[in-house]
Amino acid sequence: MKKIKTAVVGVGIFGEEHAAVYAEDERVELAIVCDLNEKRAKEIGKKYNCSWTTKTGDIATNKEIEIVSIATPDFVHRDAAIEMASSGKHIIVEKPLATTVQDAEAIISAAKKAKVKLMVDFHNRWNPPFVRAKEEIEKGNIGKPLMLSGKMSDRIEVATKWFKWSGKSGPHWFLFPHLIDLICWLTGEKVLDVYAIGKKEVLKKAGIDTYDLVQAMLKLENCFATVETSWILPSTWPSLIEFNLSVHGTEGRIDIDLTDQGLRISGKNVYNMPFISGKMEIYDRTHGFVPMPIKHFIGCVLKNKEPLVKPEEALLNVRIIEAITKSLQKGEVSFVKT
Ligand SMILES: NC(=O)c1ccc[n+]([C@@H]2O[C@H](COP(=O)([O-])OP(=O)(O)OC[C@H]3O[C@@H](n4cnc5c(N)ncnc54)[C@H](O)[C@@H]3O)[C@@H](O)[C@H]2O)c1
């Protein structure tokens, strides 16, 4: 069987995850990776045995490539996504789709015009506890959802050491996409308005002009939610993340806590709870909810099916976080266009 050719634009930390899936999945071939940073493009090209480039045009003009992952930093998805979609490539874009509603709408419109598939990588929809929670809610096991509360945070090194672009994003743009998508997906409801408070202190002192922490209240059609995010979890926090979500219903409650993923290691000098459920090599095969949505997207292209995450849901996600950002700046309730 002829293999579909694939490519990745932006092969930093997360783009490499996409490259690894394409290199391993027998249905496709990783043809080429692209990164503005030549050293990184070359390194990943060598590691996954494919071509590499620093110019997106080399992918756009290659007629054999059908699927392209966009994993550039949060605020620069637009140009690469539009260029690839307009060249007829099916695109899977990292979350958030964009950091402005205007950019998100432009990407969706380019994909619709070119009649290509577009999916945003909300990978927690493949994360087993959330999948089970959705099934329980749909079965009516906790009655009608009334109130949700969730936290998703990162240890401070994510903001201070991982990225040069932290000041152009923030915990709200980097982490809320997951929590907010889960809330909308689990309840099947739309967010109507938001009110948010945040603090810029620790990261600002380190020269990174973004929020340390944000707390937001969301009013949905028939329920409400509180979400909280921090980019300054202390470096001594035993896990890279803090991640939990509770759904209170009329007849029950669901609690999910993924901060501890079932493994605690008291090593010689460190107490650690490793992040293992997203991706793990087990006997030479990759398992976890990180590769699954990328594999799902390949299947959708092969079988001409609509991906599980709809472009409109990804746009609403951006609308909600843009409204949160406005509320943070103005100190008042911000309405979400639905
Ligand atoms: N799904 C998740 O849980 C998850 C986790 C981490 C990151 N992400 C998302 O993935 C995206 C990338 O994040 P990351 O952690 O890999 O960041 P990163 O900084 O490690 O990698 C981004 C890469 O893109 C390259 N780049 C920048 N502009 C480019 C351009 N115009 N063309 C080509 N390459 C370009 C950079 O040189 C860098 O190598 C972000 O949107 C982020 O939110 C998702």
Give a structural overview.
- This is Gfo/Idh/MocA family oxidoreductase.
- GO terms for molecular function: nucleotide binding.
- Residues 4-122 form the Gfo/Idh/MocA-like oxidoreductase N-terminal domain.
- It comes from Candidatus Desantisbacteria bacterium CG1_02_38_46.
- Residues 130-254 form the GFO/IDH/MocA-like oxidoreductase domain.
- This protein is of the alpha/beta class and 338 residues long.
- It has two domains: 4-120, NAD(P)-binding Rossmann-like Domain (Rossmann fold); 125-280 and 316-335, 2-Layer Sandwich (Dihydrodipicolinate Reductase, domain 2), CATH 3.30.360.10.
- Helix content is 36%, strand content 26%.
- The chain has helices at residues 13-24, 38-47, 57-60, 78-86, 101-114, 128-139, 156-162, 171-174, 176-187, 202-205, 291-303, 311-330, and strands at residues 4-9, 28-34, 51-53, 65-70, 90-93, 118-120, 145-154, 191-199, 213-220, 224-230, 241-249, 253-257, 265-266, 271-272, 280-282, 285-287, 334-335.
- The strands form four sheets. Strands 12-11-7-10-9-8-17 form a seven-stranded mixed β-sheet. Strands 3-2-1-4-5-6 form a six-stranded parallel β-sheet, sandwiched between helices. It has a two-stranded antiparallel ribbon with strand order 13-14.
- A hairpin with a 3-residue loop joins β9 (213-220) and β10 (224-230).
- α4 (78-86) packs parallel to α5, α5 runs antiparallel to α12 (311-330) and α9 packs across α12 (311-330).
- The longest helix has 20 residues, at 311-330.
- The chain is globular, with a radius of gyration of 20 Å.
- The N and C termini lie far apart (43 Å).
- Residues 9-15, 34-37, 40, 56, 71-74, 76, 80, 94-95, 121, 123, 163, 174 line the site of nicotinamide-adenine-dinucleotide (NAD).
- Nicotinamide-adenine-dinucleotide (NAD) binds at residues 9-15, 34-37, 40, 56, 71-74, 76, 80, 94-95, 121, 123, 163, 174.
